What does this fold into?
Amino acid sequence: MGPLQLRNRFVAAPMERNYCAEDGSVTERYIAHLGARAAGGAALVHTEAGYIRADGRGRRRQLALDDDRHVPGLRALADAVHRHGALIGMELNHGGRTTHPTVSGHQPVAPSPVPCRVTDGGLPRQLDAADIRRLVRAYGDAARRCRQAGVDVLTIHGGHGYLIHQFLSPMTNHRDDEFGDPTLFLRLVLEAVLKQAGPEQAVGLRISAHEGHPAGLSADATFALMEEVPLGRLDFLDISAGSYEAGEWIVQPGEWEPGLLAPYARRYRRHFGLPVGVAGRINSARAAARIVASGQADFVSLARTLHADPAFPRRVLSGEAYRPCIACNQCIDELHNDQPIGCSVNARAGRETVTSAPHRAAPAQILVVGGGPAGMETARLLAEDGHTVELLEAGSRLGGAFRLAAGLRQHPDYHLILDWLEDGLGRLGVAVHTEQSVDEEVLAGRNADAIVVATGAAGRGAAGLLPAGAGLREMFNIRTWLASGRRADQCLIWGADRDGVAVADHLAATGTTVVLVGAQSALAPEVGRRAKILTVPRLEHHRGVRIVLGAEVTALEEQRVRVRTAGGEEWIDAPGPLLMSQGVVPDTRLLDACLRRRPRLGVYPVGAADEAGNSLRQCFASAEQAVRALRSRL
It folds into this structure.
C-alpha cells in the first residue's frame, strides 16, 4: 500500500462508535477499543470518520480533526495501535447536508440547498466558491494533524452521501459555476491532502460504488466520474456503497449476501491498477478468502465483524473459532442515542478497559437451567474459568426463543451465534442435557455450588386481553405458533411489535395472507430504523398484507375482527388463526425453587429470567454480569 506493507489483508474499517468526548477528543475508552482491534490481528486499524471542520460534525461524540489541540489525543490512539504491530488510519470527512444544527451548532452547508430528510437538518446553506476553497484547506490541515500524530494512512471519505459525494452526485449538486464540475472539489481535496502527507504515509480514497437510489449516481456513472480523477496519485481505493437516502447500502442488512460489493471492487482493481479494498457484510473467513482469492480485492474492510470479535483476523489466520457478527444492525441504530454503542453478541464491545481475562479459582460445580443464549453464554464463560458446568434444557435443541427468530426470513445469520455458542460448550466440556425438564426433585439430585437460572420469557397470555367473541377463533401465542411449525393460508396477527412484524414478514414471504393489527403507531417501534430498513417497506407494499395501526381490537369473530381507530370502528375480514404478539413475561417459576436450595455460591438469574430484558444484547450482558458476580464470591 504505497510506502507501507500490511501484515495481512484484514483492515478495520472506519466505524462510528460514540466513544469520543462531546468535544470530539479522544478518550481512554476509544484508545482501548482501537488497541484491542490491533491486538486482534488487523493489519490496519482505522478510526471512525473524523470531521475536518466544525460544521461538518455529524455526531455529538464524533472524532474531531479540526483543531491542533486534538493532536495529542490522536497521537495516543496511534501509539496504542502501533504497540500491537498494526498500522493506524484516519478517515477525513465533512458531513455537508447530512449534519444537524443541534449537533454541529451550525447550519448545514452543501454544494446546493438540497435538504437531507433522513437527518431532518433543515435547508443547507449553499457554499460559495471562497468557502469551498477554505474547506479544501481544512482537509489539508486535518491531514497535517494526522501526520503530526503519527498516523500511517489517510483515507479521504468520498462516499456515503457526505460532502465530497454531494459534489459528485447530480441529486445534490445543481451548481452552474466551476464547482458544477462534479469532480473538481474531490480533485482539490486530493491535492491538498497529498501536499500535507508525509513520504511515509499512504493516501487513499473511499467511495460509494453507487448511491443505491434512482435519483443518485449509478455504478456506471460513478465509475465514469472516477476516470476523471487522478487516482493514479493515490496508494489505494476502498469500495463501499450507498448514501443517506439508501442507508441499507452503507450498512447492509443481514438478508443480503456477504461480500456483495466485491464485484464492484474488481472493476476498479482491474482498471486503475491500485490496491483495492472492499467493505460490505464480510462476516466470515470464507467470504473474505473468496474475495481475495478471486482477485476482486486486495484487502477486506471489516467493521461490524470486528465489533463482534476484535480478534477475528488472528483467529481466522490461526484456524480458531471466532464470535460471528449476525448483522442485526443494533449497533448502527444505537448511534442515534449519543451514547457509546455496544454489540448484541459481544458484551465487551466498548468496555475494553474492564478486565476480561478468565478468573482462575478453585473449580466449582455449576448448574445452568435453560439453554437459550443467556444460559449458553453464562455456561461458556464459567467453563472458561475452569468450573465444571452442567446445562439442562427442556427443549429438544439449545437456543430457546432465539432459535425461533433464527428461522425467520430477515434473520438468516442469527443461527451463527447459536452455532458458535454450542461449539464452545462442546469444546469446553460443558455437560449439556436437552429434553430435560427441571423441578425441585431434579434440583435436589444435583450437588451444585451455584445455580444459574436462564429460563427466558414466555409470550404474554390472553387473560384480560381478549374481547367479545374470542372463543370463536383458533388462537395461539405467536411463539407457540412458530415452534409448532404449522402453516396457514391466512392469519390474523394481533400486535405490531418486533415479533409480530418479523413473523408477518416471514409468513407473507411464504404465501400467507396476513392481517396485522396493532395498538402501535408504527411498525415495530422498539426496533431501530436500520434493523428494519427492508422489512417495513416490504410489508407496507405487500399485496397480501393489510396493516391497521393505532387500533384497539374490540370484537372477534371466526372470519373477521372489529377494530377501533382514530377514524372510528370497523369490521375487517381476517380469516385464519389468531396469532397474538402482546409482549412477553419472564419465566421465573423455578427461581424460588433454586433459591430454596441455597447453594454456597448463590443463585444467578440471567437474561429475561432476571428481567434484564428480552433482547440478545441484554442476554449476553447479563451473562457477563452474573459471571463477574460469581467470581466475587470465590
